[in-house]
Design a protein that fits this description.
639 residues, alpha/beta, 7-stranded mixed beta sheet
């Protein structure tokens, strides 16, 4: 075998294997850069035909902007026996440039010939990977900068408000400071949840449930949670479910809720006037698989065409000005996309600046049966009556702040509350007293919630053994809820929880108490069509066209105002205010005239620009009211 190898080497056959048939490009050039030889690899890598570059000048094929630098490196190579890792971009046959890297051998040092052998390797993929890594690094740096701001802002706000709260002597001031603290904690919760969700997804540890649920119930519950926010902004929030999609399905309703909450929350955040519409339909059915299509459309600020392409990337928002004005982590849509794709679904987005955005996603679910429902759907949703008068609750919580928070909520609902600082004390209290329900923290000293629950289920007498136990935990680890149910707990509530979440959980085990509701007075109209009617002179078609023009043009104009506010283009905001003035007059919205005038003057004169965002928000709210009134007018008087 050794002799055969020696014969192979002596024959020079290895030259063909290494040089002629190798993947690296080999150039032999003189000291002036004249190409005297190149191997056939130039065709595969660069597209040039064999021998087509002989007699050409090497430097003529380099990217023009890099010629000087590569010449300098070439001159250095002439003075060395060998050189390595010289990067350059070489012209391909298709007129594009490709990244190469050469190592050189100087023939003068061994052969006495003034020439270089350039062993060139294609490094295009390496450069692409490096650029992608740099882009990702910059995105993460931007994310960390955003996080620093997003986390520090509410924390600083909480600290400042607490100091003011200590000094406050007027009740209205206390309420104002407490509301500010509440808003800050909500912001922190969103940030932390986003980071935890992304971490679990990217670790590959996320698992999906396969339980029965009804879309009408799920979507209705999600929409209910946003009704207050939408009403506060004066935005119509409505949904429609096709009968074919209103059935029992098998899947993960919690993750569906998470997707819907994120998309609806974004729609509310970026919509200042108009409406948000959610439509659910059956796209197709293949045997037992239902492909359910969800569409969330808004009349918000929209996303530019170039930004739409990257909207689902982690740490990305449509514009840095979005982060400055609206806040957020830039993780929400990335999480949504991954949650959908992990369920073999797809998501798409269409958007137009100042017109609105539509997110559409399809997820396949298996058919289910009524008996598969974990929580039966309800056609009628009662408004919660927050009263549990006389209900005896044992609150097991070791953290003073968490205990105080839950205690105050329960007392407002007229519950009779007893406290325990750990599982051991809870067992002693349960032996001596009767309770209707236990709220049990998980991580506590001496005896944790798991051990306490096991002990209750095993050692308590029959009358107390089956008492409902709701777990309260700050853990966000997959499997935590399953473990709670395995040890005998009845429900699971992650902290920090909202009062309505606690109410819903308790309501599963304790009958609701009735309370009176008060109907709010009907607000006065802000539109007055007297002037429009006078100029239309009884022509209902003309009047209808005027109102429809207002309804069609006003939302995009206000969205465009919001866009220019984000970019601090105050003059353009003023111009748009001037543009909208005639339609305000025709619709008889007298209360908006001073507002429009101020926006126009402040914008065009670059004066009081700090007030313009607030004025435009007020304009948006009032136009939304007018929008509803005029649409109703079309549907009734002018239909």
């Amino acid at each position: 075998m050794g002799k055969l190898l020696e014969k192979y080497i002596e024959s020079g056959a290895f030259y063909k294997a290494v040089v002629e048939d190798g993947s690296d490009i080999i150039f032999i050039v003189d000291y002036d850069g004249l190409i005297l030889y190149h191997n056939p690899s130039v065709e595969e890598t660069l597209g040039h035909a064999p021998d087509s570059l002989r007699g050409k000048i090497f430097f003529d094929y380099l990217e023009p902007g890099s010629v000087k630098k590569v010449r300098e490196e070439f001159e250095k190579s002439i003075k060395k026996p060998y050189d390595s890792n010289i990067e350059f971009r070489f012209l391909c046959k298709d007129a594009n440039y490709k990244y190469l890297e050469f190592n050189s051998i100087n023939l003068h040092h061994k052969e006495g010939i003034e020439g270089l052998i350039l062993d060139c390797r294609d490094i295009s993929q390496r450069k692409k990977d490096a650029e992608e890594l740099l882009r990702a690094q910059k995105a993460k740096e931007q994310f960390l900068a955003n996080m620093s701001h997003e986390i520090r802002t509410p924390i600083n706000g909480i600290a400042g408000m607490v100091n003011l709260l200590f000094e406050a002597t007027v009740e209205d001031d206390r309420v104002k400071y407490l509301n500010a603290i509440k808003n800050s904690t909500e912001s922190l919760k969103v940030i932390i949840n986003d980071i935890l969700d992304l971490s679990v997804i990217e670790s590959g540890k996320l698992r999906f449930e396969k339980i029965g649920f009804n879309i009408k119930y799920q979507l209705g519950a999600v929409v209910d949670t946003f009704l207050f926010q939408s009403k506060e902004k004066g935005i119509d929030l409505k949904y429609d479910i096709q009968p074919e999609a209103d059935t029992v399905l098998l899947g993960d309703p919690v993750r569906l809720n998470q997707i819907l909450i994120n998309l609806i929350s974004n729609a509310i955040k970026f919509t200042h006037i108009g409406e948000i519409t959610i439509q659910v339909s059956l796209e197709k059915k293949e045997e037992k698989i239902h492909y359910i299509r969800f569409s969330i459309s808004d009349t918000g600020v929209g996303i530019s065409e170039e930004k739409v392409q990257n909207i689902f990337e982690s740490f990305t928002q449509a514009d840095e000005s979005v982060t400055r004005r609206y806040g957020g982590t830039g993780l929400g849509l990335s999480i949504v996309k991954q949650l959908i794709e992990l369920q073999n679904g797809i998501i798409e987005v269409t958007s137009e600046e100042n017109k609105g955005t539509t997110f559409t996603f399809v997820i396949p679910y298996e058919s289910g049966k009524i008996q598969d429902l974990v929580q039966p759907s309800s056609k009628v949703k009662e408004t919660p009556k927050y009263s549990f008068k006389g209900v005896k609750v044992l609150l097991v919580e070791d953290n003073d702040i968490n205990r105080l928070y839950a205690l105050n909520i329960l007392k407002k609902w007229e519950c009779e509350v007893d406290g325990a600082e750990n599982g051991y004390i809870a067992l002693e209290k349960l032996r001596s007293n009767d309770y209707d329900l236990i709220l049990m923290d998980i991580q506590m000293p001496i005896m944790d919630g798991y051990e306490a629950t096991k002990s209750i289920r095993k050692t308590m007498p029959d009358g107390k053994k089956q008492i409902p136990i709701i777990a309260l935990t700050a853990n966000a680890i997959k499997g935590d809820s399953e473990k709670c149910l395995e040890v005998g707990m009845n429900d699971y509530l992650p902290k920090p929880f909202q009062p309505q979440d606690l109410y819903k959980s308790i309501s599963k085990f304790i009958s609701k108490k009735n309370s009176n509701t008060h109907k709010l007075p009907t607000p006065a109209r802000i539109t007055d069509l007297t002037y429009l009617k006078s100029i239309c002179d009884g022509d209902k078609t003309f009047m209808r066209d005027m109102i429809e023009t207002f309804l069609m043009n006003t939302p995009p104009t206000i969205n465009e105002m919001q866009k220019w506010i984000n970019k601090a283009e105050w003059f353009k905001v003023g111009n748009l205010a001037h543009k909208i003035k005639p339609s305000i007059t025709f619709m008889g919205i007298e209360s908006l005239k001073p507002l429009i005038k101020n926006i126009e003057v402040y914008g065009k004169d670059n004066y009081h620009t700090d007030l313009i965002p607030t004025l435009v928000d007020e304009l948006s709210e009032k136009c939304q009211v007018a929008y509803k009134e005029l649409r109703k007018e079309l549907q009734t008087t002018l239909s």
